[in-house]
């Protein structure tokens, strides 16, 4: 349901973005301003990136199959990476066009209508950017969040550009048009680098330590005495789906059915507390004598050592692939 809503939202944003691109190019034709042209050229990037973002959302929504057992969610990272690269390319093109304009004579006219049209386009990008980023964060879609961030950067650069055009109009210094355009281009390139960096992190399965810490805190808060130990904790995100791998130490004498019930309780706890699709792959380890010192299970029939202290589950304590004991 959330995926279909994201797709419809992206379709509307793409249609509105196409209209805004035409408005910006009309403003450029009316003013011959390189600054406005830079804004219009970035709109081309918006359309290309938005089209691929729509495709990636459609693909990410497909169910899992034999060839893609983890689903198709990682296409969103590729989409975000493409958007980041295109944003950087647009910034480079703007700088090239600004330098070229500095070396030739330039005449600006009809700045009033150009400023008005640019303000309308910038306000529309601001509204769409806020909507996309909010929906992206709510549905854990990096594609929508990247598109929203891109549109917001476009809106802020448009605001700065309008201020610059007013300065040009008041001072008559036409060369400021190129300076402002190059400044906006550098900001655009920086935004593209940030988007690209996050997409590469997703493709490389870089762990989201903030999210991992939150999941670990959930397990610690709902911890049962039967859950003797937690270690080798790892998280991987495939689009909006969070995969968690970990090892859980349970009493070695538990029947298989009892052990399975404990693991199911852990899974239900995580899924209940986190508003996204969560998959847990939990490896069950039997307890060993060294586990007794950290085990709080009362009336254990095979306890060989008294309980000494609790090992609190934190991000720092559960990442290593080793069972805990008092000496650790």
Topology:
Blueprint: H1 2-31, H2 34-60, H3 75-102, H4 111-139, H5 142-171, H6 176-203, H7 209-221, E1 229-238, E2 241-250, H8 256-273, E3 278-286, H9 315-318
Parallel strand pairs: 2-3
Antiparallel strand pairs: 1-2
Helix pairs in contact: 1-2, 1-4, 2-3, 2-5, 2-6, 3-5, 3-6, 4-5, 5-6
Main features:
328 residues; mainly alpha; Alpha-Beta Plaits; three-stranded mixed sheet; 9% strand
What's the quick description here?
This protein has 328 residues and is mostly helical.
Structure description:
- The structure is a single chain.
- This protein has 328 residues and is mainly alpha-helical.
- It has two domains: 2-203, Alpha-lytic protease prodomain-like (Up-down Bundle), CATH 1.20.1510.10; 209-318, Cation efflux protein, cytoplasmic domain (Alpha-Beta Plaits).
- The chain has nine helices and three strands.
- It has helices at residues 2-31, 34-60, 75-102, 111-139, 142-171, 176-203, 209-221, 256-273, 315-318; strands spanning 229-238, 241-250, 278-286.
- Helix 1 (2-31) runs antiparallel to helix 2 and helix 5 (142-171) runs antiparallel to helix 6 (176-203).
């Amino acid at each position: 349901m959330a995926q279909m809503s994201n797709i419809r939202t992206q379709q509307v944003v793409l249609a509105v973005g196409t209209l805004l691109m035409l408005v910006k190019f009309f403003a450029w034709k009316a003013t011959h301003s390189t600054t406005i042209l830079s804004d219009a050229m970035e709109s081309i990037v918006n359309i290309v990136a938005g089209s691929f973002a729509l495709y990636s959302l459609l693909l990410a929504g497909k169910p899992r199959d034999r060839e893609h057992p983890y689903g198709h969610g990682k296409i969103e990272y590729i989409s975000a990476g493409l958007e980041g690269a295109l944003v950087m390319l647009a910034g480079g093109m703007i700088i090239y066009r600004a330098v070229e304009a500095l070396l030739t004579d330039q005449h600006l006219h009809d700045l009033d209508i150009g400023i008005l049209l640019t303000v309308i386009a910038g306000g529309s990008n601001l509204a769409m950017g806020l909507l996309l980023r909010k929906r992206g964060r709510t549905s854990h879609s990096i594609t929508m969040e990247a598109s929203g961030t891109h549109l917001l950067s476009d809106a802020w650069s448009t605001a700065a550009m309008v201020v610059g055009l007013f300065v040009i109009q008041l001072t008559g210094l036409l060369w400021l048009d190129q300076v402002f355009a190059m400044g906006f281009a550098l900001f655009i390139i920086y935004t593209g680098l940030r988007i690209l960096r996050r997409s590469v992190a997703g493709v490389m399965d870089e762990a989201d330590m903030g999210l991992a810490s939150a999941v670990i805190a959930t397990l610690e808060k709902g911890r049962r005495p039967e859950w003797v130990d937690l270690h080798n904790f790892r998280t991987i995100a495939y689009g909006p789906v969070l995969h968690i791998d970990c090892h859980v130490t349970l009493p070695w004498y538990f029947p298989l059915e009892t052990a399975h019930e404990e693991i199911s309780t852990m899974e239900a706890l995580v899924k209940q507390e986190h508003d996204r699709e969560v998959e847990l792959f939990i490896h069950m380890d039997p307890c060993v004598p060294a586990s007794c010192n950290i085990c709080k299970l009362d009336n254990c029939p095979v306890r060989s050592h008294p309980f000494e202290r609790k090992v609190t589950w934190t991000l720092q304590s559960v990442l290593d692939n080793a069972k805990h004991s008092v000496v650790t």
